[in-house]
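Q: what sequence does this backbone want?
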């Protein structure tokens, strides 16, 4: 799991490239809105799940996404242990009490063992979800993300 940098929605050229021929601002002025992507990649299947928050992604946001997915994963895979690979960022740190509290609640409610596995600092390249972010960025490259509908449509 991981979050990506906030994406600004507006008439921005995203690095100066635009394959649509539309006019875009060459500076990032105040965006119309912002999205912060959060993703979970299941390494065994290659399935990815993406959500977009309209503010910073918090420990509660991430825990709520796991709350949504755990019943499905239990049904499909029959899981009894959930290993979460994370980058030890500020919202999912092993010292973040809100994150840990929510995970303990999830483990109790769903009768799961939850194990946290953190990547060393500055080694996000080993996190498989980073490849999803790379694919998403390549897909967005040259597009003007000027509406929520277009941004979410391209991500889909």
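A:
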């Amino acid at each position: 799991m991981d979050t990506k940098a906030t994406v600004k929605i507006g008439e921005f050229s995203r690095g100066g490239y635009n394959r649509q021929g539309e006019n875009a601002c060459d500076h990032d002025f105040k965006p119309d809105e912002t999205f912060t992507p959060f993703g979970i990649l299941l390494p065994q299947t290659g399935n990815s799940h993406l959500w977009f928050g309209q503010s910073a992604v918090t420990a509660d946001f991430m825990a709520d996404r796991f709350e949504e997915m755990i019943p499905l994963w239990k049904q499909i895979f029959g899981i009894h242990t959930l290993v979460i690979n994370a980058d030890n960022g500020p919202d999912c740190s092993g010292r973040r009490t809100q994150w840990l509290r929510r995970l303990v609640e999830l483990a109790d409610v769903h009768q799961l063992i939850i194990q946290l596995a953190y990547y060393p600092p500055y080694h996000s390249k080993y996190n498989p979800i980073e490849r999803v972010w790379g694919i998403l960025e390549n897909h967005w490259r040259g597009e003007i993300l000027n509406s929520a509908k277009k941004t979410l449509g391209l991500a889909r």
